[in-house]
Amino acid sequence: MRFRLTPRETSFYDMFAASADNIVTGSKLLMELLGADTSARAEIAERMRAAEHAGDDATHAIFHQLNSSFITPFDREDIYSLASSLDDIMDFMEEAVDLVVLYNIEELPRGVEQQIEVLARAAELTAEAMPHLRTMDSLTEYWIEVNRLENQADQIHRKLLAHLFNGKYDAIEVLKLKQIVDVLEEAADAFEHVANTVETIAVKES
């Protein structure tokens, strides 16, 4: 790691950790949605909405700190990219839950649980990785594993699409379910964006 002669604003580390912890909360609500009956989903969606708002607040706090800090722990564009990608994850997860409720989906197609399990694992890894930004150690396995999980999510997504278009569902139901599984796939992509940004930061700081 490069030796620095200037002090750095270290509150960013805590902010990123808090944002990632909030994503874990969101992933748990997604898991909870899987086992809930339709009558309980609106309440889960409300809690997910609150978590998404908390994520927005965390992101705005990072941007405010970025705009008011003369010295930052790493490049400003990387701080912005990391905060934005973390925020995207929460947005996509909240959107998926909201669509399930708005479309009044009675039963999610088989395979969605695998999508959500991948997201939950990626959330745990991301939350574990954020504190390591302070030292930039023990991060290689993180971004390798998240990239592997994203590849797994791609495969699950393709199988889900094939299932949706096998003629079992009517056209309107296909449109509704496809939008949900597509948004969950976007969440997986956003986790990969976070991991790629962390890798970029680590390379620059090495």
Q: Can you put this structure into words, describing what you see?
A:
This protein has 206 residues and is mainly alpha-helical. The chain has one domain (12-205): Phosphate transport system protein phou homolog 2, domain 2 (Methane Monooxygenase Hydroxylase, Chain G, domain 1), CATH 1.20.58. Helices cover 78% and strands 0% of the residues. The protein has 6 helices and no strands. The protein has helices spanning 11-34, 38-68, 76-102, 112-129, 140-164, 171-205. Helix 1 (11-34) runs antiparallel to helix 4. Pfam families: PhoU_div. This is DUF47 domain-containing protein. Belongs to the UPF0111 family.
Gist?
The chain is an all-alpha fold and 206 residues long. It has one domain (12-205): Methane Monooxygenase Hydroxylase, Chain G, domain 1 (Up-down Bundle), CATH 1.20.58.220.
Features:
mainly alpha, Methane Monooxygenase Hydroxylase, Chain G, domain 1, 0% strand, 206 residues, globular, 78% helix, disordered N terminus
Task: Map the helices and strands.
Layout: H1 11-34, H2 38-68, H3 76-102, H4 112-129, H5 140-164, H6 171-205
Helix pairs in contact: 1-2, 1-3, 1-4, 2-3, 3-6, 4-5, 4-6, 5-6
Please state the average pLDDT score: 93
Number of helices: 6
In terms of per-residue confidence, which ranges show pLDDT below 50 for 5 or more consecutive residues? Answer: 1-7
Q: How many structural domains does the protein architecture include?
A: 1
Pfam families: PhoU_div (PF01865)
Protein name: DUF47 domain-containing protein
Family: Belongs to the UPF0111 family.
Organism: Streptomyces griseomycini
